[in-house]
Amino acid sequence: MKVFTYSPGGTHLEEEKWTKDKVFVSLQPPSVAVIPLVQHTGAPNTPLVKIGDNVKIGSILGSSPAPISAPVHASISGQVIAIEDRLCPTGAKVQSVVIKNDFKDEWVNCEGVASLEEISPEEIVKKIRDCGIVGLGGAAFPTSVKLSPPVGKVIDTVIANGAECEPYLTTDYRVMLEYSDQVINGLLIELKVLKAKKGVIAVEDNKVDAAELLLNAIREKNLENLIEVVLVKTKYPQGGEKQLIKAILGREVPSEGLPLDVGVVVQNVGTLKAISEAIFEGKPLIDRGITISGTVIKNPGNYIVRIGTPVSEIIEQVGGLNRRLRKLIFGGPMTGVAQSSIEVPVVKGTSGILFFGEEAFTMAPEEETPCIRCSRCVDHCPTGLMPVLIDHAYRRNDLKLSESLNAVDCIECGVCSYVCPAKRHLTDNIKKAKQAILKQRRIEAAKKAAFEKLRAKKEQEKAQKEVGK
Amino acid sequence: MNFGEYLVDLAKIFVSSSIINNIVLIQFLGLCSYIGLSDSMSSSIGMSFAVIFVTVCSSILAWVIDHWILIPSNLQSVLQITSFILVIGSFVGLVQIYLRKTSPNLHKAMGIYLPLIATNCLILGVTFINSMNNYDLVQSIVEAIGASLGYAIALLLLVGIRERLRDSDVPTFFKGKAIAFMVSAIMALAFLGFQGMIR
Amino acid sequence: MNSDMVDLTISAAPHVRDKIKTPHLMRDVIIALLPATIGGLVIFGLRHTLGVIVVSVVSAVAAEYIGNVLFRRKNSIKDLSASVTGLLLALILPPTSPYWMVVVGAFSAILLGKAIFGSVGSNPFNPALVGRAVLMVSWTTFMTTWVKPFYWSGMGAMSTATMATVTGIDAVTTATPLSIIKFQGLQPLLQMFGSRSQLYLALFLGNRPGCIGETSVLLLLIGGVYLILRKVIDWKIPLCFIGSVFILSFIFGRDPIFSILSGGLFLGAFFMATDYSSSPLTSRGKLLYGIFLGFITVIIRQFGPYPEGVMFSILLGNMVVPYFDKLRPHVYGVFKRKGEA
Amino acid sequence: MKRYLNIVWDAIVPSNPVLIIAIGLCSVIAVSNSVQSALLMTFAFSLVMIPSNIIISSMRRIIPEELRVPIFVMVIAAFTTIAVLISRAYFTAIYDLIKLYILLIVVNCIIIGRAEAFAYSHPVLESFFDGVGMTLGYGWVLTAIAVVRELLGKGTIAGFQVLPATFQPAIIMILPPAGFLMIGILIGAVENYLRKKEGKK
User: Fold this and answer.
1) Could you read off the pLDDT tens digit of each residue along chain C, which spans 341 residues?
2) Do A378 and C281 touch (CB under 8 A)?
3) Which of A449, B18, D10, D65 is deepest in the core (most CB within 10 A)?
4) Residue A293: phi, psi to the nearest 5?
5) Of A233-247, A345-359, C92-106, D14-28, where does mean pLDDT reach its minimum?
6) Integer Cα distance of C115 and C63 in angstroms
7) How far is CA A200 from CA A40, A108, A260, A266, in A?
8) Chain B residues in contact with C118 (beta carbon < 8 A)
9) Residues B136-168: pLDDT tens digits?
10) Mapping DSSP to helix (H, G, I), strand (E, B) and coil, where does residue A405 land?
11) Which of A424, B152, D56, D72 is closest to C14 using CA atoms?
12) Which residue of B has its CA nearest to C310?
């Protein structure tokens, strides 16, 4: 198999995939589940339950009529004991439904279809939305939206993203090995919905066994003409949506655009599995595979965890900690978010939870030393940015310069900070610059809109006056 | 001197005034605006163009006055300074008025630098250099182009470095004009590498 | 769960960093310079050369310390950048340099070349070259006084008689191949070394008069390749620099092989032009920067008053770096629309 | 009399034209590589500074407001011509080295600046002392820099060997870079001093 890759930029990281060979183990449902009402990118959900209500597994807890949104479901059966703001893995407090487990494990009625022939693309999209499926790679973008491209956009390729390039994480790898059928089915569903000609499963070349397994499954099903398995070079951030598209198809998603602008949809393999389960089993997204790893957790491994399980429960169930826990990271070490409490719950976008002790401070020193202009950040940026210059501009509060240096095109992969010998917080500052620019743009757009409105109103009045005359 | 030698001579004048004996770094003319403007890229570009234009025109005017009026009437040593500065001053004034009336855009781009130029010792200096070396008209024009280009080169190089130094932890002692002089010192040092290239 | 088992801290992503830090890079540069340094000691003898190197490094570090105190900065001696500057300066001085001159050079390099612009990474010019340029224009005689290889170790490689008859200079001071070729042409050199290939070999191995660390192309190449393999420096600047000197020398009718082997080109290309702080950030900038340096070097060697042009060309190149930095890489997904730009 | 002394003193130190206002730098950098040049420059400067201050001050009531700048320039140009002629006649050797800068006294910002800011609004005697003060203020800075540069660059002061023959002069001190260097350090020191003074207030 040919190995694809993008250029320039990126770097090879220590893989640290200790849990590579650990088969998925289901954790027990938690005694109390904390389910945030917003677990996706988009409009917030309004609660549909009250305190004291009894819910079953799969009961809808909240939803929203907004187009970009996904409902959330109860992941355990029991009683709603609180609806209040709770700390979420994003670091913000989010309205959450707290359910006390009755350990009856009762499910709501779930029904799937037996074959794809029975169901129309529109019904598939609706079902996927109803089941609350979002991208499981981390961004948690509602899948139903991705599957409804605007009229006129033709999608020719669907890429299944199995290039799990973050260190430590092995969730996607295990999904490909243990749920290869579901992954392929999920891809078939997407191809049907999007009327795309071709599906591509991209796997990093450090996971050749998964690629071969998938290839064999595809051959068995006689799908070789429809679905292709390709290897991509093991390099961070190979699994980034934009990098993957460039590596495999040679296309570049335009700045501030989406993959669908170049006729592509990229979907994480875990999401494909969830889609397949939603369509064929009718199962809403109530649990997901998570890699539990790090230096201070006793039994690292891959676990199927119910959405809403607090980290403290997970620690207990997997056997506790060896040493003092100093850093708790949701997601991979490159892009993940450090947590301030062990009470945060697992959400739909949680692909891994990493536990580190004191060594976290040598892994990522806080202290910055002066920039020596070594140009490593420039050489390694997968987007072709000049991180050092954006960083300087941000420190001087020069938003205009940051903007002209294309700060908004940053994919926040963390490579610049990783390679920096002076240990400067480049990614963090570029991220902040990016946010400040976007905020300023929003303010300006709002100002402009208000101004236009005022002018329109004045003109209207003027017209009315003239009519009055 | 045949034509070929003359051309070589012109090339030497040009290279000498623009690079080897750079008007700013080696001959120290036009320092006020060189240092003053060197913290802004856009105004240095504007100033560079304005200086090139005015220097060339003034040199022609000054040459004409020198050779057609002052030398024939034997008044060079007495009236040269006065007439040169008057000519340049009024020329700059006229250009300003003309630009404002005819092309507002150009005036906007160049106009704000014109009053600064009138007192820029580079322009007057070049006319004196031409006269001291007894350059003919073509040589004077080449000297003027070379010298003003040399000014532009030095200014733009300094602007580039100062723009970069905004992000550096320059000691308070040297912040501002002082560091511009220190950078110029090293630039002048580097330009010494060309010294003596032309006898 | 026991509550003191958990003491969480938050920080921004990424939560892992490469292990390489600034001092590691500087240490690699020092390691890469060791072959040439030792070579210099062997070629020119321990007697005075070692003193020059020690004085240079010690005074550079002392100057760095004084700069830190003067400008109230954190102690930056441990990042080894001052030591690198001191070592580099020593390697581009003649073996006969008086110690007081070395001290002046090191202080100019660190204080004028670096400290006044900010801490490490802020200097727009290569500090070691600033130091050398100050010495070069101040004490030209000392800076152009050369000894024959092995003069101090008593095993004269070229016989004193040949040297004196060919160059007409007394036995102690002699001329570098570049200055011989500049003022007397190639013939005396061929006479001195026997044949053209012998001349190349001598230059390649470093058996010639010159600055302490610049003579042995072989040893410099070992260090340079080490730095490239360790990814401390990029191949682009040295390759373009040496390549363009080769091509342009040929165009100007000079012996291209002789041109790249003589003078301080290899030392300059691998260790001076690649100085992080005073070289461009982007790939395209580096390519053009290398070519620019080669061009100026050949121009100065051909037309200038000094036989060697590497030092001045790098200092001149340093000034243009902000503009080479404008040659930015292509940003993913950003296309210039027609009619724009 | 005290008032006049004050005017002079003010120009020498507290509002020294070169140091504090930082104008007229071209000539300071250019001729400060030898004490003799510096002295001749100061002399030529005084020949323009003092008389033009006196003339402008005495004519201040008849110079029309709108035409004052061209008239200032004419007056200064006339005295510059005189200064050039005198310097050329009596100090030919040194004059030849620095003639460009003597010619350029005509655009020296200090002189036209004082005409505008002082002479045009003050009586003749005060303007005379202001001219003297400015000359001294300009002269001492220029000469001081020249002493340092010549001493280190040649080992001499005004041509007389001062340092022992074993001293190896640093040629760089009499070349252009050192001119920038000295002014850079001087301006840094002055601005630092002013900043501290401001801070105390």
Assistant:
1) 556 788 888 888 899 999 999 999 999 999 999 999 999 998 888 778 899 999 999 999 999 999 999 988 888 888 899 999 999 999 999 988 889 999 999 999 999 999 999 888 899 999 999 999 999 989 988 888 887 777 554 444 444 434 444 443 333 556 788 878 777 777 888 887 778 888 888 889 888 888 899 989 999 999 999 999 999 999 999 999 999 999 999 999 888 999 899 888 999 999 999 999 999 999 999 999 999 999 999 988 888 777 788 999 999 999 999 999 999 999 998 886 544 43
2) yes
3) B18
4) -150, -175
5) D14-28
6) 9
7) 25, 35, 15, 9
8) 165, 168-171
9) 999 999 999 999 999 999 999 999 999 999 888
10) coil
11) A424
12) B193
CB within 8 Å of C195: residues ≥ 6 apart: none
Q: 3-class secondary structure for C115-179? A: HHHCCCCCCCCCHHHHHHHHHHHHCHHHHCCECCCCCCCCCCCCCHHHHHHHHCCCCCCECCHHH
In chain D, how many domains are there? 1
Give the torsion through C-alpha atoms of D109, D111, D115, D116, to 10 deg: 10
Degrees to nearest 5, angle at CA A308 with A306 and A314:
70
Instruction: Report CB contact under 8 Å: C22, A254.
Output: no
d(CA A315, CA A343): 11
**Interface contact C335-A382, CB threshold 8 A:** no
CB-CB contact of D144 with D186 (8 Å): no
Which residue reads 């000609």 in tokens? A197
Q: Which of A201, A203, A260 is nearest to A227 (CA)?
A: A201
CA dihedral A273, A18, A428, A373 (to 10 degrees): -130
Domain count, chain B: 1
Residue A322, sorted as left (phi over 0), alpha (psi -120 to 50) or beta, turns out to be alpha
Q: Is residue B5 part of a domain?
A: no
Which chain C residue is nearest to residue B163, measuring alpha carbons?
A: C322
The minimum CA-CA distance between C126 and chain A, rounded to whole Å, is 13
Nearest chain C CA: its distance from D172 CA (Å):
5
pLDDT digits (tens, 9 = 90+) for D144-169: 999 999 999 988 888 888 888 888 88
Residues C95 and C196: their CA atoms lie apart, in Å, by 26
Q: Can you say how many angstroms the Cα of residue A163 is from the centroid of all Cα atoms in its chain?
A: 13
Rg (CA), chain D: 18
Residue A396: its H or E element: none
Rounded distance, CA A9 to CA A383, Å? Answer: 7
Q: Which amino acid is at A305?
A: V
Domain layout of chain C by residue ranges: 22-143, 233-325
| Domain contains B199 | no
> Is the residue at B50 inside a domain?
yes
Q: What's the domain range around D71?
A: 2-200
Number of H helices and E strands in chain B, helices first, is 9, 0
Task: Outline where chain D has alpha helix (H).
Answer: 2-12, 25-31, 35-58, 68-90, 92-103, 109-117, 124-154, 176-200
| pLDDT tens, residue by residue, A311-338 | 999 999 998 899 999 999 999 999 999 9
Domains plus CATH for chain A? 3-281 (3.40.50.11540), 287-361 (3.10.20.600), 365-469 (no CATH)
Q: Which of A388, A392, A397, A429 to mutate to test the interface with B (most CBs of B within 10 A)?
A: A392
Residue A289 burial (10 A CB sphere; 0-12, 13-18, 19+): buried
Chain C residues whose CB is inside 8 A of the B40 CB are none
Contact between A182 and A272 (Cβ < 8 Å): yes
C-alpha–C-alpha distance, residues D180 and D176, integer Å: 7
| Cα separation, C140 vs C144, whole angstroms | 6
Residues A269-283: tens digit of each pLDDT: 999 999 999 999 999
Rounded to two decimals, the ipTM of the complex is 0.89
The alpha-carbon gap from D61 to the nearest alpha carbon of chain B, in Å, equals 23
